[in-house]
Amino acid sequence: DISLGCAHCWTRRGGGESIASSPHYTSVTPHTPQKMSAAMASCAANARAFAKPAIGSKRSNALRRAGPRVVTASSRRHVMTAKAEYKVAVLGAAGGIGQSLSLLLKMNPLISDLALYDIVNTPGVAADLSHTNTTCSVKGYAGEEQLADALKGCDLVIIPAGVPRKPGMTRDDLFKINAGIVAGLTQACAENCPKAMINMISNPVNSTVPIAAEVLKKKGVYDPKKLFGVTTLDVVRSNTFISEAKGLDVNDVDVPVVGGHAGITILPLLSQATPAVAMTDDVIDALTKRTQDGGTEVVAAKAGKGSATLSMAYAGALFADACLRAKNGEANVVECTYVESKVTEAPFFATKVTLGKEGVEKIHGLGELSAYEQKALDAMMPELKDSINKGVEFAKSM
Q: What is d(CA 14, CA 35) in angstroms, rounded to the nearest whole number?
């Protein structure tokens, strides 16, 4: 038989304590879990995708030590999951990021209802996903006239809507197209689910988050604790690149990434990496620049036929899961994210943030920076502040 407890509680216990005491646990034979996922215990085959605990926290080795056993569709009735309680909407669900993101969210045991919205094609995406045997129900909404219904009752709204980057496009070019899209969708959130957390993926995040904040302020429902720019992809990339460069197990690597979510505003704090690794100045510079240029690397590799959709969907699902776990009462959920902040002179800034039931619980400082990192921080500030002001001015002019 297959007996799995709640992956969240198992990770928190470090794999060394009975899962029977977990608040998410229901009666199963108390065997050692073979393979688990922090985001979807009901799909162990995809466990590696969701094995990452909170950024900046001590990583559990339970999953890494686990055997190759896979939970099949026919054995799902034996798998215990956290109680599904939350409604989540994906705005832009028919796009390259949206479809993959929706699939990953459909497997999250904390989500009871998944609302997929886009201008067109979402009924088909929803029909396709509805055939997957997870407990989450899914429904597609197409066209502006159905947007309100998609948003009503939502606990979390994820916004990947807008056009993707193409070869030669800057995030400035994206701004001209995506700013209006983000403003309209945020206004709909303000009117239909004003207390929901919002995860902003639409680029340029350095500007779209300030746009959303201003729109919510105009509607009188702005809560800075519930608006997040998703910068998790920068962390995912940095963890991957440093593990490859230094021959580390990626499951043991955590690198905080601060600043913004574009070019030089992305700053991986390699001096604070876990585990601590000795690196030459050349390696530090190369890893930093590769993380900053990760999106461009993918756009070039796809030769104009796409952008970083799969990795962004993966990162978006990780951050959404962190928000839901915190909302569900899990303690010490820490992620890097772009929020309203007083850490620097920039009014929005990404650092480690402790998440809680109502969103932001604590914004962490930068910690001790190396000389290289301090110089990079100083260099990014004019561009970051300019991007923020651009978003604010756009929203105020509407």
A: 14
* CB burial of residue 115 (10 Å; 0-12, 13-18, 19+): buried
Asked if omega into 23 is within 30° of 0 (cis), the reply is no
Q: What number of H helices and E strands is found in the chain?
A: 12, 11
Contact present, 115 and 151 (Cβ < 8 Å)? yes
- Closest Cα partner for 39 from 93, 86, 82, 87? 82
List strand residue ranges (DSSP E) for the chain, in order: 86-91, 111-118, 137-142, 156-159, 197-200, 227-229, 257-259, 266-268, 333-340, 348-356, 359-363
Number of other residues whose CB lies within 10 A of the CB of residue 299: 21
Rg, Å, the chain Cα set: 20
**Structural tokens at position 246:** 């230094």
SS3 61: coil
Q: What is the mean pLDDT of residues 148-176?
A: 87
**How many Cβ atoms sit within 10 Å of the Cβ of residue 30?**
11
Q: Please state, in angstroms and as integers, the Cα–Cα distance from residue 299 to each residue in 25, 296, 311, following that order.
A: 43, 5, 12
HEC readout, 277-313 = CCCCHHHHHHHHHHHHCHHHHHHHHCCCCCCCHHHHH
Could you give the CA distance from residue 360 to residue 376 in angstroms, rounded to a whole number? 26
pTM for the whole thing? 0.82
How far apart, in whole angstroms, are the C-alpha atoms of residue 200 and residue 188? 14
pLDDT at residue 34 above 80?
no
pLDDT of 341 over the 60 cut: yes
pLDDT confidence of residue 79:
36
CA–CA distance, 349 with 331 (Å, rounded to integer): 23
**Spatial contact of 269 and 367, defined as CB atoms under 8 Å apart:** yes
Residue burial 343-380, b: 16+ Cβ < 10 Å; e: rest: ebebbbbbbbbbbbeebbbebbebeebeeebeebbeeb
- pLDDT tens column, 344-371: 999 999 999 999 999 999 999 999 999 9
CA 128 to chain centre: 23
Choosing from 78, 131, 261, 364, the catalytic residue is 261
Active site includes 24? no
74-111 pLDDT per residue, tens: 333 333 346 779 999 999 999 999 999 999 999 999 99
